[in-house]
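tool=predict chain=A
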Amino acid sequence: MLEAILLQTFPNLVTPPTSDYDCTSKTTSPLPLLAARKRNIAPKKNKQERVRTPHKRGKASNAQKTLPKQPVFSFSFLTIKEFLSRLSTKAAQAGQHLTGAKESLQTRKHDYSKNALQKLSRATTTLHTDLSAITWKPGPPTTDLQILFNAGVLGSKINLRLLKGPAKYTAILPAKRAQLLLTALPRKRVVSIIERLSEIRIRLAKKTYDTPGVLAVIGNALAQRGVNVELIISNHPDVSFFIREEALPLARAILSTLLKQDIAQAKQKPR
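tool=predict ok
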């Protein structure tokens, strides 16, 4: 009651600061503080004490505005018409680029073929018939070499082609020698046998061998007429095409036209 009478008599009286409220507050009326002290609850702040911060979506608060600006990406929004216009322009540019690249590739391919055809006329051809190709799984290296040397597979005038890979070996040799190799090899290790093979060996000059597209011209000429090439071995300055013997007459006619020479009269060396 005394406090109420004092407040009515002296309205400008300010209650000395206590530990229950902030002395820096601009509030001039201690009544809410006294009532809150009696009820042991937190006092309510007056409207003047409330600090309002904007919480609008998409806008930063006052505290965030004071922070240093971070680098952000700027996006420009296009209308549908502008987007379609730019897209059509890019597509047209890409089409021109692809068309030009395709034309340049065709031109280079034509030049390669033309140069290769001009130089192939100087090649010499040799035929080898009655060959076989045997493929087997490798064993210990010394064992396979002993088989080749000790079983009579290698004769004094034999040109053996041995292709060694990580998973299999392939030997191309005359049919008589191939039978000796089959007898010496364990049957479980034999993978495949190709009999009645013919080799068309084309000897090229150094400049012809180094001309891009030479092998492609010969291979395409045979494939377009249905000649299946079983194996190609290139060893400078020779290129060997291995085909079945039944396809040999057709391959001769094709290469005679391509090389501008009579392949039928080429030296035929049975092994």
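The longest helix spans residues 80-120. Confidence is low (pLDDT under 50) at residues 18-28, 103-110.
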